[in-house]
Amino acid sequence: EILTSSHICCTSSSASFSSPKFTMGDHSIPRMTLIVVSTVAFIVCVAFNALAGPGSGPFKNTTSAISNDYNTEITPSGWTFSIWGVIYTWLSLMIIYILTTTCRRVMIAAVIFLALIAFTNYLTIFLSCHGLKEYGAWLNKYHKVDLWCIRILVQNGIATYATWTTIATLLNFTIVLSYNAGMSKSDAATVSLSILLGEVIAWFIVENFVFEKHLRYILTVYPVVIVALSGNMTKNFNAANPSRNAVLLGLACALFAIRLMLVIWRHIKRPLYRGINAEEVMSPMEIAKQQMKIFS
């Protein structure tokens, strides 16, 4: 897992907004430390994954050899794993964005989100969404670019990583059931796909009807599932006997289409932060002071 923290800062000229400026003094040492540790940990993680692929360095086997030795009915085609390139590119952009916030002349004194991916990617997404709940209206008014950077680079980047690692975990679980627990490959694959089905349906309900306002712009979950299942189909599909994989792939595509339509409709008809009086939008510093009073 990669430890990451973002110290979200804002930059703007005096003409861009009328709220009071928060001049950056000394950097917060704990937050700067987390950012540095995050960057170093990410670089180390990428380096180890680069060595693991061809079986170099401390790794005695290639990842493809391990995959072939422990083949299952839900193991996708080799091309599917190229999604790691997308994941690491996305996370790299996220790290770069976080690093740029330390070089700005004007800053938000309160943290937009502070997350440890080591505490699981899901917790990271939760903390990020909570941060936007607290400061989203202020960002939307004064720093809309930062708001969209957090949504696209941070939240969707972590969601991509979280989804793929979830699928990878289920793949490893299938291997354990098949090779260690003595379960047939078909039954082991069915168990893992059933879990994935439950997770996809649960996520669809949560993101659209439970925490819709918090999760509205996280859209990368379904594409990752579709890529994984497509890779599985190209490797294991039997036209004479369409498998449960095909059914799940069709469901994922349908849910993704519905999700896109709902997001577009809500973005147009029910935009976030509508009706909020500009004069009542609290700055991060004011919110932080209010929170300190609550716990003091």
UniProtKB/TrEMBL annotation:
Coiled coil: none annotated. Keywords: Membrane, Transmembrane, Transmembrane helix. The chain crosses the membrane at residues 32-52, 79-99, 106-127, 161-179, 191-211, 217-234, 246-265. Signal peptide: none annotated. This is Uncharacterized protein.
